[in-house]
Each structure stands twice: as C-alpha cells, then as structure tokens.
Amino acid sequence: MQTKQFKIEGTPRDEAALDAAAALLRAGKLVVIPTETVYGLAANALDPAAAAAIYTAKGRPCDNPLIVHIASLDELPPLVKAVPDALYRLADRFWPGPMTVILEKSDLVPSATTGGLDTVAVRMPAHPAARALIRRAGVPLAAPSANLSGSPSPTCARHCIDDLDGRVDAIVDGGPCEVGLESTVLTLCEQPPQILRPGAVTLEMARQVLADIELGPGVFERLPDGVRAASPGMKYKHYAPKARVILVHAARGPFANFLASRKGRFGALCLAGDEQALSCPCIVYGAQDDAASQAHGLFDALRQIDRAGLPLVYARVDGAGGVGQAVYNRLLRAAGFEELWV
Ligand code: TXA
Ligand code: MG
Asked: Which domains can be identified in the chain, with CATH numbers?
C-alpha cells in the first residue's frame, strides 16, 4: 500500500490536506493523525471493518480495545448507555485534553472497536488538526497510538513513518506532540472510579473533581499471573526497546559511581547534565526535576536506544510527582519492572 503524507503547517494549504485526509476516513481508510499526547492511528469508530483494519496494521492483539475520539460533548451520548454526572464534571475541567474516560457502551459502537468489551473508552483531544479531522470526517474516530504493537508510542511523524509506512493509507504530520505520553485513562465503571493509566491529568488533578478516585492495580507494580487487567493494554509488554533496561533510582553522583563499577557494554538513559559525569554512551530523555520535559522526550529516547544497538541500558529515575508518575509508569514497563536503588 502507498502511504500518502500530508503536512499541517498553519497555512491555508492545510484546508486541502484536512479535506483529503477526512475523505479517506469517511471511506473507511486508515489515517495517522496528530494529537497533543501521541500520534493516533485513526479510522471510523462505528465501522467494524475499519476498526479491524487498525488491529491488522498495528499487529495489535484483538482483545485490546481502542479509544474513540470525539470533537464535542454532544457526540458522546449516542456512544454510551448513560452519561454520568461525574463525566460532565471531568469534561468541564479536562476536555478537550489528555484524558480518556471508560463508560458503558451503546449498541452503536461495534465490539470490533472495543475489543469485545461492553465498555468504551472516549477522549476529546485538544490538537486542532485532530479536532478538525473528527469534524470533517463526521464520525467519531477510533485511534490507538500509531506505533507497531509493542514499540514506544510515536511523538512525531517520523516515528509513524518508521513503523507504519506502507501499512496505512495516509499520515498527517502536525509536528511534534506537545505532551509526549498517552492520555490518562480512567474508568467510571468501577466504584470508586480508578485511574488505569496515568498521564498528564494526574491523580491529584483528578481528585480535585472526583475526591474518591484511586490508582488502579498494576499502575506501579506487575500484576500477578492470572489477574485480569482492567485495561487490557496494561497486560502487554509495552514501550520496550530490544535492549534490557534497568531503572536506577539515584542522584547524579551515585548514578555515575554505580555505572563506573559496571563491566561490559551498556549505555545510560539519563537526564540533561548527567552526560558530563558518565563515560558510557548517553541518551538524554529530559531535564532533572522537570517531569514535563521527561514526558516530552521519553519515547523518542526509547527509540534511540535501539538505533544505538545497545544490549543494556541503565535508566536514571528522578522521583518527581505529577506527570512524573506517568513517566515512571512507562519506564517501569520499558524495564519489565526491573529496578534498583543506589
Ligand atoms: O493519548 C492517547 O490516549 C492516545 C491518542 C492517540 O489518543 N491513544 C492511545 O491509545 O494511547 P492506545 O490504544 O495505545 O491505548 C489505549 C489504552 C489501552 O491500554 C487499552 O487497553 C485501554 O486504553 N482501553 C481502551 N478501551 C478500554 C476499555 N473499554 N476498558 C479498559 N481499557 C480500555
Ligand atoms: Mg498504545
């Protein structure tokens, strides 16, 4: 398949690109779209064949449900059994933006889109191109992250081309993603509500709206064998480079001393300024005490690890709060939960 590429540049030419991409979506085709979190691999969420094609293009297990993207709140009621008051309060505060909410689905949403579940995950993205495409397509868009299953989520068009060129109909390049980590996923189908995947909407922020919301099981620890993941995506090995990754909780000095004592070939996934203290190959993923910069840079850094062909990487973790929790959640998965404190 020939993959078309469209560029959104903030000029009147964007109109033609958005129209062409929306026409493909209306015709049931696969189009990679930019969002403020990560790029999404979009198709008509109400078309079972289009949803099925997403799974094939990504190589995604068919029981891992897709997020349905809407552009305005009036598109939500037809997709769900009921809209609880809590949803309106969350939407008022966090939509459009990096929050996905799980609700009971209506019959309008095909089970091909929800991986066979009777719930549906819904998000209203903030990125202007994503919103324009949903509006122009005239249908809600199912869109998982636009990476091959198992590899880090894409935060720029280059990552999408590397993974999906020849497997999708078009890629819309809207520049680098602002946040860089996937949305916060929370469920209103549990009592109390739970955060299943942390993101830029943090637990503290969500608690300002829903005082009783909790972190779901599996966010910061490996789920025991046989325990069903509330969010099927959390059970798969994720974000993992081919290299073995080991997390190291340490300040700069102790991290440098620890690495100096290691033998063999390895690299460091580290924070800006660490390179001067280290003598191994270094990949910087963000700045110390700046979780937003770490979120922004992490997935590109994970892709660089494989390009560098390193067999082993020690990743320095900076225990920041807020979106730092989401960074730590992704690092844990990249490391297969291997971590140490020095
Ligand atoms: O920021 C994002 O959320 C990006 C952009 C494109 O919107 N999308 C994204 O989609 O990260 P994906 O498919 O890579 O991750 C969706 C996660 C998966 O872990 C999936 O299992 C979970 O949400 N999920 C989706 N629908 C669900 C449902 N009905 N119940 C439980 N978990 C669900
Ligand atoms: Mg994903």
From this structure: 4-215 (3.90.870.10), 244-341 (3.40.50.11030)
Atom of ligand 1 nearest to the CA of 119: 29
If you ran DSSP here, which 8-state letter would residue 265 be given? S
Residue nearest to atom 3 of ligand 1 (CA): 183
Token pair belonging to 331? 């690092």
Confidence of residue 209 (pLDDT cuts 50, 70, 90): very high
Alpha-carbon distance 31 to 33, whole Å? 6
DSSP string, 263-302: -SS-EEEEETTGGGG--S-EEEEEBTTBHHHHHHHHHHHH
At 309, list the tokens.
Answer: 């062909």
Q: How far is the CA of 29 from the centre of ligand 1 (A)?
A: 20
Q: Name the more confident of 224 and 148.
A: 148
DSSP tag of 80: B
Ligand 1 near 32 CB (within 6 A): no
Predicted confidence (pLDDT) per residue in 294-332, tens digit: 999 999 999 999 899 999 999 999 876 789 999 999 999
Is the CA virtual torsion 249, 254, 257, 261 positive or negative?
A: negative
